[in-house]
Amino acid sequence: RKNEPELLKKIDSAIAAIIANGTYKKIESHYFNFDVYGANPAK
User: Fold this and answer.
1) Any idea where the domains of the chain sit in the sequence?
2) Can you tell me the distance from the alpha carbon of 4 to that of 25, in angstroms, rounded to the nearest whole number?
3) Under a CB-based contact definition with an 8 Å cutoff, are residues 41 and 35 in contact?
4) Nearest to residue 24, comparing CAs of 35, 10, 8, 39?
5) Secondary structure of residue 24 in the 3-state scheme
6) Coil, strand or helix: which one is 37?
7) Terminal CA-to-CA distance of the chain, rounded, Å?
8) Is-contact 33 27, C-beta < 8 A?
9) Which helix (H) or strand (E) holds 20?
10) pLDDT tens for residues 3-39?
């Protein structure tokens, strides 16, 4: 929400944390067989 910069900071921090600790990739690979951002296209 544009009028809640503190909430945005908390969400950004949470996303950065799960990317850093590998949780994001684990969840992503469970649901998708490709990199959803296109860095590693499906073979």
Assistant:
1) 1-32
2) 28
3) yes
4) 35
5) helix
6) coil
7) 38
8) no
9) helix 5-20
10) 999 999 999 999 999 999 999 999 999 999 888 877 7
